[in-house]
Amino acid sequence: MPKHPLTLLCLAVAVLATTIGAAPIKFSGSTPLQWSVRYANSEASRLCVSNEYSMPKGKWNYANFLELRSMLYLDDRLAEPKPRYRAFVQATTDSFLSDDGRSVARFKPGEYSIDDIAPGVTVQYLYRTDKNERYRNTIELMRRQLDPGKHPRVSEGAFWHKKRYPHQIWLDGLYMGSPLYAEYTATLEAPERRRAAYDDIALQFRISAKHTHDKKTGLYYHAWDESREQGWANKETGQSPNFWSRAIGWYSMAIVDVLDFLPDETAADKTRRAGLITILKSVLDGVIKYQDPESGCWWQVTDQAHRRGNYLEATATAMFAYTMAKAMNHGYIDRATYEAPALKAYGGLIETLVKVNADGSIDLTQCCAVAGLGYGRDGSYEYYLSEPIINNDPKGSGPFILAGIEFDRLLDINETQKTLPASLVFKIGAPGRSSSKIRPEQKNNDVRKPDKTQGR
After folding, report:
1. Beta strand 354-356 with 223-225: parallel, antiparallel or unpaired?
2. Distance between CA 188 and CA 287 in Å, rounded?
3. How many CB atoms lie under 10 A from the CB of residue 8?
4. Does 115 qualify as catalytic in the annotation?
5. Interatomic CA distance for residues 428 and 434, integer angstroms
6. Which one, of 275, 199, 295, 214, lies nearest residue 248 by Cα?
7. Among 184, 302, 356, 453, which is most exposed with the fewest C-beta within 10 angstroms?
8. What is the H or E stretch that residue 434 is in?
9. According to the model, what pLDDT value does residue 24 have?
């Protein structure tokens, strides 16, 4: 979309206006919740046609299920008599599960990939809302992967990213395993085992922060190799060589999502939560220093603004916008410090990285398709710029939808289905067909590429 510099300058005035009865703040003509609905409608139409998230085409994939879960949360926020996205999400999820939920198509327990735990959070939502034992069994399958003696760990107790990535902690991995672990502990774990589990969850963040934080920049490196054997690892520190914005984004989202389930009753509980909030503030303070002052977005390689080849990247920008808005809504960070960069991030996301198509559908542009380390990927600046740049990657789609929900709360708009424009009323079909007004041909606008299984 074309940039409108004055829009960002006027955001502070607009926020004040919402407190004195003026019209709700809008970004390029739509409120945050309207943007979430517009994008969810666009994506749901594309996915109903392509059926690419469901079996037999689909994968048990953390990114796809993040986007699906964001649609469930959007249903919650809209509070319509009949949820618009749930049937689609549920049918997609069910396509992977055995009749009793004790096995999952394309999930390979013996690979011990922390990525494969993350889709279970969507299953947790479905179980929480209808108590189907099939979903409970799938949740148990995911949770048992993290039991002592199963998923490998570094010597200090943090999970390896994958069995095939030995001795390595990746920031991304904190999002892949910890939210399910935290929710399970709060809702399904035996009471006598909860404290140890909560301590283990907090340990994951402490150890990862200890080994990836860079005091000079305030940023967090993508990964750490305890063995120092990987070609990308610094032989003294074990750290990877560059700061990748999306890795830091995954880490920040992991913290705010885990805090949803950590208790705040005993002294030990308060200490545990305070430790995570301290890390959260450190992460956000670091990235805000590198927020692009003109657009409000973040660069693919965080600290290399305007270096040849670098670009403003949508998935990380959406993640940081979501994290800051949610953290303010829950009181983890103060509005006086973080509201301005958060609004600038969300405004920049809409104005710089969203494309409105002729048929009314929208695309999220400039998404890094995938990135990882090892197996030929050296973590260099050139490497991070070599991966494909695509539209509508689910690693950005989910955070984009979630960000709109959180900004709806933050700005006290509290929009409901009744106040949405009539053009956004939407009926979704089952996977494999579309019943919306968005044309099936629009799928040709989507340059989503198949996921690479070893990156994020």
Report:
1. unpaired
2. 35
3. 20
4. no
5. 7
6. 214
7. 453
8. none
9. 80
Amino acid making up residue 2: P
Place of tokens 């396509």: 95
The Cα-based distances of 147 to 142, 317, 363 in angstroms read 10, 34, 40
Q: Dihedral of CA 15/20/26/30: which sign?
A: positive
State the residue for tokens 């494909």: 388
Q: For residue 225, what is the enclosing H or E element?
A: strand 223-225
pLDDT along the chain (456 residues), means of 10: 39 35 80 96 90 94 98 95 93 98 98 98 97 98 97 98 98 98 98 98 98 98 98 98 98 98 98 98 98 98 97 98 98 98 98 96 97 98 98 98 98 80 63 38 39 52
3-state secondary structure of 342: helix
Q: Which helix (H) or strand (E) holds 316?
A: helix 314-329
CA separation, residue 109 to residues 93, 119, 228 (Å): 18, 14, 27
| 299, β-bridge pairs | 312
- Asked whether 60 and 111 are in contact (CB, 8 A), the reply is no
- Tokens linked to 7: 């829009």
Catalytic site residue from 75, 116, 172, 225: 172
pLDDT given for residue 198 in this prediction: 98
The pLDDT value given to residue 339? 98
Per-position DSSP letters for 226-293, written without gaps between them: TT--STTS-TTT-B-SS-BHHHHHHHHHHHHHHHTTS--SSHHHHHHHHHHHHHHHHHHHHHHTTS-T
- The DSSP letter of residue 160 is P
Cα of 29 vs its chain's centroid, Å:
25
Q: How far apart are CA 338 and CA 281, in angstroms?
A: 10
pLDDT of residue 227: 98
* Owner of token pair 């319509």: 80
Question: Which residue type is seen at 16?
Answer: L
**Which amino acid is located at 449 in the chain?**
K
* CA distances for 125 relative to 129, 216, 271, 318, angstroms: 6, 40, 28, 22
Q: How far apart (Å, rounded) are the C-alpha atoms in residues 434 and 53?
A: 14
Buried b vs exposed e over 124-153: b needs ≥16 C-beta within 10 Å?
Answer: bbbbeeeeeebbebbbebbbebbeeeebeb
Query: Rounded distance, CA 83 to CA 72, Å?
Result: 8
Q: Is 121 helix (H, G, I), strand (E, B) or coil?
A: helix
pTM surpassing 0.85?
yes
Cα separation, 281 vs 289, in Å, equals: 13
Max CA-CA distance within the chain? 60
Would you say 256 and 280 are in contact if contact means Cβ atoms under 8 Å apart? yes
> What residues have CB less than 8 Å from 58, skipping those under 6 apart?
51, 52, 64, 92, 95, 96
